[in-house]
Design goal:
There is one protein chain. 33% of the residues lie in helices and 20% in strands. The chain contains 14 helices and 22 strands. The N and C termini lie far apart (57 Å).
Length: 472
């Protein structure tokens, strides 16, 4: 596409050169590309524009009139940030209208529901594409640095899915992505709210604003159908405004999709029939995630035959209640839980399953929502027999200060051991587990699949699974 085709209302003279690609990241620009600059800081905009031109950009579009420099091909476009979806759809010719699009949002469970749905489609030989920030090697999965890519990257990926004959596209829609309009212009077919609880209050001004952002995803887009977790006020409000959506619940047996655990078996009751959940899936939140994926799968299918699905073959993402046997009847689990609600759900699941002592190792991220630290400390105090406080990603904060914030929520401080070095803390936790009685369990929470730690200006390689394996 040529710039004149992209901006038909622009009256200035521009060359007739065809644009190779477009990006919001100046580092990704190469010769013949279009760079779009929308950084709020003027000095940063100037820096990024120069970098893009140095890398070979044919043109730069800016939302700041003071930066416009026509001889250097830097063009001002009024309200540019509000036109990104329109421009992206022009360039890539509306790929989301040519493929079935699933948008998965929620505080916890987005990655798992997306991955489960991807696997369900694979079981019936339906070719789908998954966008994930977890480093998975499966064919059909596109790895993204961001949970929700920007609109140009997103449309480029969707276009590639179409070129590779994919029938469906599945991706996570984060609250950051919603607020920053990264999905504006995408034509969604099916939506899902996996859960809702406190998170990201370092970014959102309040829980009320966080709620509004999540709800706006369903208010601002048109869906053929949706699966909504009804076990939260936000979910209930979304369902009230969207009568065609299906409700899913662990608590209300009148929900459209309900997990029944009353008769010794765990069964997903749904409008399409019932499906038994395999014994190895023991955590309530994982049952909900699988049932949510099943709901989306059935909503989008013309012919539904549940007998063709095998839930026992569904694999988990790395770092999602990932089990490692440490000694006889003593296990270690690695989980990504980094919110009070997620930590509570994982700890309660392990407490229900194991009869021995429960050891919980975790920390909290630096330069992020400080208010959740005391809450996570309180959760651990109420459910764990022993607690090891350590580093998560302290970033630019003092690790000891983070630990002190968590400790304020712990009444029984005698059960706490503080070791800020995460590797040493894990080593200590494994030693403690080996000394405990049978049926004891150790949870390493917060990092999950991640393979690095951010400490000051350094990114240090650190993977909980590999650390555990090195010590047993």
């Amino acid at each position: 596409m040529k710039l004149k085709e992209l901006l038909p209302d622009y009256l200035g003279k521009v060359s007739d050169d065809k644009l190779n690609s477009v990006s919001l990241n100046s580092q990704e620009i190469s010769k013949g590309d279009l760079y779009i600059s929308i950084a709020k800081d003027v000095s940063l905009q100037k820096k990024y524009c120069q970098e893009a031109l140095k890398n070979g950009a044919s043109f730069v579009l800016t939302n700041n009139l003071s930066i416009e420099n026509l001889p250097k091909k830097i063009i001002f476009v009024k309200n540019l940030e509000k036109k990104l979806g329109l421009l992206s759809n022009k360039i890539y010719e509306n790929p989301s209208k040519k493929i079935t699009v699933f948008g998965i949002t929620g505080t916890n469970g987005k990655s798992s529901v997306s991955y489960y749905l991807f696997q369900l489609f694979n079981q019936i030989k339906m070719s789908s594409g998954l966008i994930s920030n977890v480093n998975l090697k499966n064919p059909g999965i596109c790895i993204s640095k961001l949970t929700t890519p920007d609109i140009f990257s997103l449309n480029k990926i969707l276009n590639n899915f179409l070129l590779n004959k994919k029938e469906a596209a599945i991706f996570e829609v984060s609250s950051h992505g919603i607020k920053q309009k990264r999905v504006e212009g995408i034509s969604f077919d099916y939506g899902c709210l996996t859960s809702f609880s406190r998170d990201h209050l370092d970014y959102h001004s309040s829980m009320k604003e966080y709620e509004k952002v999540k709800e706006s995803f369903f208010a601002d887009n048109k869906f053929k159908g949706g699966v909504i977790n009804a076990d939260s006020k936000v979910g209930k409000r979304i369902l009230l405004k969207n009568k065609e959506f299906l409700s899913i619940s662990m608590e209300d047996n009148k929900s459209d999709i309900f997990i029944d655990k009353n008769k010794g078996k765990k069964v997903i009751n749904s409008p399409w029939g019932n499906l038994e959940i395999p014994n190895q899936i023991f955590a309530d939140h994982k049952m909900l995630n699988i049932a949510s994926a099943l709901g989306l799968f059935c909503l989008s299918s013309n012919k539904i035959n549940l007998s063709k699905l095998n839930l026992e073959k569904i694999k988990d993402l790395p770092g999602r209640l990932e089990k490692i046997n440490v000694a006889l009847n003593k296990d270690c689990y690695i989980d990504y839980a980094h919110t009070p609600d997620a930590l509570e759900k994982v700890l309660q699941s392990l407490k229900n399953k194991y009869q021995g002592n429960l050891i919980c190792l975790f920390g909290c991220g630096g330069d992020r929502d400080q208010g959740k630290r005391v809450l996570m400390g309180s959760v651990a105090d109420s459910l764990a027999d022993k607690i090891i406080l350590t580093n998560d990603n302290p970033r630019f904060e003092n690790p000891n200060q983070i630990v002190m914030h968590i400790s304020e929520g712990i009444k029984n401080i005698k059960k706490v051991k503080i070791i800020t070095d995460r590797t040493k803390a894990i080593k200590y936790g494994l030693k403690l587990l080996k000394e405990e009685k049978e049926e004891s369990v150790l949870l390493l929470a917060g990092k999950g699949h991640e393979s690095n730690q951010e400490i000051k200006r350094k990114t240090i390689y650190s993977n909980d699974y590999e650390i555990v394996r090195s010590f047993i």
